[in-house]
Amino acid sequence: MRIDWPGLMRAGITGLGLRPAEFWALTPAELRLMLGEGGPAPLARTGLARLMAAWPDTGDTE
């Protein structure tokens, strides 16, 4: 399996605005996460609704 270094560099440096030193300091897993690959799926509206029902705001600060 070949790694597309030019493509990854374009995505990291141009797309994400990383400096070259920042790009090369990342692990592959960190870069994938920053590019939106891997990791948990973002919270959708239905998930937020479930959380709000489970833990409603009561106005208490404690």
How would you characterize this protein structure?
- This protein has about 60 residues and is mainly alpha-helical.
- It has one domain.
- It has 4 helices and no strands.
- The chain has helices at about 5-15, 20-25, 30-35, 45-55.
Features of this protein?
mainly alpha, 55% helix, 62 residues
What's the short version?
The protein has 62 residues and is mainly α. 55% of the residues lie in helices and 0% in strands.
Largest sheet: none
Roughly what fraction of the amino acids lie in strands?
Answer: under 5%
The rounded distance between the terminal residues' Cα atoms is 53 Å
* Low-pLDDT segments, ≥5 res: none
Secondary-structure element order, as H and E? HHHH
Mean pLDDT: 87
What would you call the shape?
elongated
Tally the helices: what do you get? 4
Write down the oligomeric state.
Answer: single chain
The share of residues in helices is: 40-55%
Task: Evaluate the radius of gyration.
Answer: 18 Å
Give the domain tally: 1
Q: Could you give the topology of this structure?
A:
Layout: H1 5-15, H2 20-25, H3 28-34, H4 45-54
